[in-house]
Design a protein that fits this description.
The protein has about 290 residues and is an alpha/beta fold. The protein is built from 10 helices and 12 strands. The strands form 2 sheets. A 7-stranded parallel sheet has the order 8-7-6-9-10-11-12. Strands 2-1-3-4-5 form a 5-stranded parallel sheet. Strand 9, helix 8 and strand 10 form a beta-alpha-beta unit. The structure holds nicotinamide-adenine-dinucleotide. Nicotinamide-adenine-dinucleotide binds next to helix 4 and helix 6.
Length: about 290
């Protein structure tokens, strides 16, 4: 069996998988591979599948399968899996890190010190304690964030048309009822026809004045130009962003917007998560090994 690691995984993974057969990261051998492991960079398109004539199993290390042509894979009887449960803690911690960094001016304060400036009077902080967090999409990651916000003494609301009740979050069936009271809004929905461009000019009008927006979900669920306008007008006090229209972004207006913290799509990139992803991949290959050659 040939296993192709097409994107970056834990460095210990090739050795772990060697008990199943040969493991390579040589993308030129895709036509020989029985198993292909991808994260978000490799696009398993129709052309990719046509080229991979031995392919029986694709595993996407992470959540979402938007980089795999699922219909064509099904037609070609290729099994496709993700490792959806592995990344929840990593992404929730990053969303929470952005919620802490923005009102505490962590990046602004650090940058000013490096520039030899002393902004003690200018940098006034606000606390998370007692504030309201509105979570859009209370699935695995949203739920992990809810636990952390609850521990910090925040009130937690959530909007998710597919979830009726939640242990920690109070569910709001009308999105605008959540938006007009939330000091923080954190996005954890998948990219679908429904969520594409959801945070736009009209929806931003419904936000509480001076709210903070966090997006570690998918870039295309916001209209970047509209978020920039809201930052410039002060409607939004800040924006913490990990996800983009493309990786890396091209000509994003966020580059010159005020009070933005930008990260290079590192939500899932913790050491611990890569180890968890590796363990799940090993279990999946073990489960399907008799069907792979
Ligand atoms: P999940 O499926 O457990 O949760 C997603 C939730 O969104 C579900 O409860 C679903 O009902 C809800 N939802 C769907 N449509 C909605 C809508 N229109 N409005 C409100 N809620 C809606 O998924 P998860 O594991 O929590 O991951 C959430 C998202 O996080 C993923 O889809 C992915 O886009 C993103 N993600 C980002 C990173 C990163 O590196 N930044 C890593 C992993 C996942």
């Amino acid at each position: 069996m040939l296993i192709l690691l097409s994107d970056a995984f834990d460095p210990g993974l090739p050795e772990k998988l060697s008990r199943f057969g040969e493991v390579t990261d040589d993308k030129g051998r895709v036509s020989e591979a029985h198993v292909v492991l991808v994260r978000s960079k490799t696009k398993v398109t129709r052309e990719y599948i046509d080229n991979a004539t031995n392919l029986k199993l694709v595993i996407r290390g992470g959540v979402g399968l938007d980089n795999v042509d699922l219909d064509y894979a099904r037609e070609k009887r290729i099994i496709v899996h993700n490792t959806a449960d592995a990344s929840s803690i990593a992404v929730a911690e990053l969303a929470f890190a952005l919620m802490i960094a923005l009102p505490n001016h962590i990046t602004k304060g650090d940058k000013s010190m490096h520039e030899g400036k002393w902004l003690k009077k200018e940098l006034k902080r606000t606390e998370l304690y007692g504030k309201t967090l509105g979570i859009l999409g209370i699935g695995r990651i949203g739920s992990e964030l809810a636990k952390r916000a609850d521990a910090f003494g925040m009130k937690v609301l959530a909007y998710d048309p597919y979830v009726k009740s939640h242990d920690i979050a109070e569910m709001e069936s009308d999105l605008k009822d959540l938006l007009n009271v939330s000091d923080y809004v954190s996005m954890h929905m998948p990219l679908t026809d429904e969520t594409k461009g959801m945070v736009n000019k009209d929806l931003l009008k419904k936000f509480k004045d001076g709210a903070y927006l966090i997006n570690t979900g998918r870039g295309k669920t916001i209209i970047e130009e509209d978020v920039v306008e809201a930052l410039k007008s002060g409607k939004l006090a800040g924006f913490g962003n990990d996800v983009w229209y493309s990786d890396p972004p091209e000509n994003t207006p966020l580059m010159d917007a005020p009070n933005v913290i930008m990260l290079p799509h590192i939500g899932a990139s913790t050491k611990e998560n890569l180890l968890r992803i590796g363990d799940i991949i090993e279990q999946l290959i073990d489960k399907y090994k008799d069907q792979l050659e």
